[in-house]
Amino acid sequence: MRHLIRRICFYLVALWASITLNFIVPRLAPGNPAESLLLRFERKGPVSPETLKALQASFGINTSDPLWLQYFQYLNNLLHGNLGISFTAYPTPVTTVISQGIVWTLILGAVSVVISFVLGCLIGIVMAWKRGSLLDTILSPAMTFLSAIPYFWLALIIVYIFGFSLGWFPFSDGYDITLDVGWNGDFILSAIYHAILPAVTIVLSSVAGWMLVMRNSMIMTLSEDYVLMANAKGLHSLRVMFAYAARNAILPNVAGFALSLGFIVGGQLVTEIVFSYPGIGYSLLQAVQGQDYTLLQGIFLIIALAVLGANFLADLLYTALDPRVRQGRSA
Fold this sequence. Notes:
The chain is mostly helical. The chain folds into 2 domains: 22-79, no CATH class; 94-330, MetI-like (MetI-like fold, Orthogonal Bundle), CATH 1.10.3720.10. Helices cover 77% and strands 0% of the residues. The protein contains 16 helices and no strands. The chain is globular, with a radius of gyration of 25 Å. The mean pLDDT is 76. It comes from Reticulibacter mediterranei. Keywords: Membrane, Transmembrane, Transmembrane helix, Transport. This is Peptide ABC transporter permease. The chain crosses the membrane at residues 9-29, 102-129, 150-171, 191-213, 249-275, 295-321.
């Protein structure tokens, strides 16, 4: 219980630090979103200074107030669930913009992470069980090479080959824009079809890491006494491989899987930008281009919450799965 309280206090401090940085960093960037929006209105006619002040107040960037007062106003708005109004989607609230994009991000990321985790673990188990074979000799360096490729380069290569050159898959938008958005068969099939290339990119860029960790952990586990005893009993090889060796070797990947769930929101930003996928990453690009402070802060806050939550979950999960860690921390 004492360990749990310490970890909760640590993550609360980390959350406060993230919120503070989330407030400061966008304000270090040059420019003013209210002035940019004001230029749009000035094309239709002159705008008074009072209008500019009203726009600044609506975006929560009233430069006439001291920075510390703006900070406490920002904290008060967060406590009330008010993330402000998006400049790029004016007058839509930031919560609405994020809620529209995060659904696409979570579905794409969750499916891709689960596929890459299961596939990587299975390949790692087989490679470790048949270490030194032709399969292990070919796949190990191939996966190492694949893991060294930056995932945004991999995304560009996939777009060029399968989207632009061959034309097999669409490489922009999350669905056919001629269809009506809704839970109908045509829309769902279109969304799946448009998500194939982004999902393949995420899977290929992450499966190598799961595989290599699982292979190395599995090789160490295969030399343990209980695995040798299971082989000496004459148990079926599949039972020894999965029930004895893989069950214990998968522990590092389980903790990593919990962390990867938190990085779903922030870990595929560039992939969404490359494919113009309507997720959080594409919204972030629009916010940066439009100097949208409020939307930037909202997206960064969601990413920080997801990462901190995943780290906390991984900490609890690792402690629950490994008694040695639990006993060491309580000692």
